[in-house]
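Hi, here's the filled form for the chain we discussed.

Project: internal
Contact: R.S.
Residues: 236
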Amino acid sequence: MIALSVVWLSSAGFAAEIDWPMEPMEPDLENLPSLQNGLRLFTNYCLGCHSLRFQRYERTADDLGIPHFVVMETVVFTGQKIGALMTTAMDPEKAKNWFGAPPPDLTLVTRARSPEWVYNYLKTFYIDDTRPFGVNNKVFANVGMPHALFELQGVQVDTCKPRVKGCYQLAVQEGSGLYSPEEYDQAVYDLVNFLYYVGEPARLERQRLGIFVLLFLVILGVFTYLLNREYWKDVH
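And the returned structure, exactly as it came back:
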């Protein structure tokens, strides 16, 4: 299945300024079920075209609390070993012929854009028969890729009349996707949450370490103050 691309370039260059009310998205790296589901979604819908070439299966499994054998049975489909990088099997030259450019690596996409941007991007694909792949996007106008999560979301259409400014309405045809709108929103959240983790796998560890460092500095400051007062108490 063709996978998503969040940093794909259109023929005119980078996407134009965003004219869409962005929904907030707050990642939660302590929500392991969300991260695990995000990994599942990425390997099923994204890894066919896009790699995470700075991320290893083993590190991902350890961080997300997934046994190695489960990852090998349910995630690794290319015969790679558990210590291998999460790379795609797609031939870059063939991809260039199909899409005009090889699908980009997504390891740092939430850092290059933002989790909020990626979240809204994945929610705002809509049917547009004028585009090569039959879809367009409200966050990235004239995007040059198909809607990779189409079977999950279903058929989404722009219900605004042409050239009506200030109209921001998209509607999913009921029953056209495997997920309900609420389930799809959660799936997109989980996928973006996983990509946020991939952007810096040591983020939680760094934040926890930072707390201890600050506590150490506070304690050190107290002792430094007491020592300084002891040195200067006899100075008139």
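Let me know if anything looks off before we file it.
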